[in-house]
Write a structure and sequence with these properties.
6 strands, CBS-domain, MgtE N-terminal fold, elongated, 66% helix, 3 domains, Tetracycline Repressor, domain 2, mainly alpha, three-stranded mixed beta sheet
């Protein structure tokens, strides 16, 4: 059905059937309109925006990818651009301004009324990726000494311009956050009941300078649809809503996956990113890893004489490298996930290292025994079997330890732990695994022969 509508929209624009198209668009959700516009030429997207009421146009615009928003800004007529910017929620407007050049932002700020411009500037003054940048100042606040009747009258009066009204925030005369009250409780309560008697004083909140990851963790932990944001003096300045948190979660997941597989961040969808950008985002990591991997060749060359005297050792080199890399990647992915969900903190470092060291020993011994029998069946040499099995046990233990400790080190020095996985982890284990393999087999073969 979506494809048929998209074809009709394209044809209707070409045929100039704007009235009929306007009728269709008003019954569609903003996200569906964005999907229908995806493959249209920019000029036709502008036509659709002209047909939309200004409130719906702003909703559609906020649903679009940031790259598409930037392109359309340069094509909108001044009046249309002004109306869309005014209708955008303050938090959505901040996300857009963050991605635009400073000179463009200065120009767009002039299109806003004074009060909206003040909100925009205040949000932009908070640190990037902080709760302050993510929040919206459009929330319902109630004074503690209000009655339920007064509170309901206030909600009815200000609700149209607020982002959410399901949770209301109780404050005093200094705007200090005191508690929360749900709209359902207000509806069910006696109209003469004081808000202070109805509110829940156990409030989960964040500060404006807190990282957005903390916001995500708290909202997931306490199953919130919105979380209040306070300043350094505990004054309520905004809320972060669930729709913005979902966007952050998607963004963080994308970043982690890309970094785990050694790709610089690509913001646009894959099929809409040009080939040049995709190449540029990958090539530098690959060049760096290639030169790092060259160390492996140098190590092998150093042990060339050993390989020539015991050619069978070369049979097990791929097993050593592959198994070590797999073991390290398994651990690092678990630790990275734990850090991302807030389950693992730096205070757990000793416990994790101890735990993974034990697991590494068990896995190493188990895999070592398995390799011994394989090696004996392959080369019929007990000494070789013992040497390679001991080497594999040590490599797996070492890879397990490395996979556990590196993400925690990255967290400690304020790097993204996701960088310590995928190709980087594999390359590091390759190099160190080869060194361990040859050192171990050399010593054991000297003893047994």
């Amino acid at each position: 059905m979506g494809l048929e509508v998209k074809v009709d929209i394209d044809r209707m624009i070409e045929d100039g059937k704007y009235k009929a198209l306007k009728e269709i668009l008003q019954y569609l959700e903003p996200a569906d309109i964005v999907d229908l516009m995806e493959d249209l030429d920019p000029s036709k997207k502008i036509v659709i925006f002209r047909l939309l009421p200004k409130e719906l146009a702003a909703q559609v615009f906020s649903e679009m990818e940031i790259e598409d928003q930037k392109k359309l800004i340069s094509l909108f007529k001044e009046e249309r651009l002004k109306s869309i910017l005014e209708e955008l929620d303050p938090d959505d407007r901040t996300i857009l301004f963050e991605e635009l050049p400073a000179n463009v932002v200065r120009k767009l700020l002039l299109y806003l009324p004074a009060d909206e411009r003040k909100k925009a500037l205040e949000l932009l003054n908070y640190p990037p990726d902080s709760a302050g940048r993510l929040m919206t100042p459009e929330f319902v606040d109630l004074y503690i000494d209000m009655t339920v009747k007064e509170a309901m009258e206030r909600i009815k009066r200000i609700a149209p311009e607020k982002e959410t009204i399901y949770t209301c925030y109780v404050i005093d005369k200094t705007r200090k956050l005191l508690g929360v009250v749900e709209l359902k409780d207000l509806i069910l309560a006696d109209e003469n009941t004081k808000i202070g008697d109805l509110m829940n004083e156990r409030v989960v909140f964040v500060r404006t300078t807190d990282d957005q990851e903390k916001v995500v963790q708290l909202m997931k932990k306490y199953d919130l649809i919105a979380i209040p944001v306070v300043d350094s003096e505990d004054r309520l300045v905004g809320i972060v809503t669930i729709d913005d948190v979902l966007d952050v979660m998607e963004e963080e997941t994308d970043e982690d996956i890309q970094r785990m597989f050694a790709v610089q961040r690509v913001e646009a969808p894959y099929l809409r990113t040009n080939i040049r950008t995709l190449i540029f985002k990958r090539i530098w990591w690959l060049i760096g890893l290639m030169f790092l991997e060259a160390i492996s060749g140098s190590v092998i060359k150093r042990y060339e004489a050993l390989i020539q005297s015991s050619v069978a050792l070369s049979f097990f080199l791929p097993t050593m490298i592959g198994t070590g890399g797999n073991a390290g990647s398994q651990v690092s992915s678990l630790i990275i996930r734990g850090i991302a969900t807030g389950e693992i903190t730096l205070s757990d470092t000793f416990k994790i290292v101890l735990r993974e060291s034990f697991i590494g020993i068990v896995l190493g011994v188990t895999l070592g025994f398995a390799l011994y029998f394989r090696a004996y069946l392959l080369v019929r040499d007990t000494a070789i079997g013992i040497a390679v099995s001991f080497a594999l046990a040590i490599v797996v233990f070492y890879a397990n330890f490395l996979g556990a400790i590196l993400p925690l080190i990255a967290k400690k020095i304020n790097l993204d732990p996701a960088m310590m996985a995928g190709p980087f982890m594999t390359t590091l284990v390759d190099i160190s695994g080869i060194i361990i393999y040859f050192l171990t087999t050399t010593k054991i073969l000297q003893i047994l022969r």
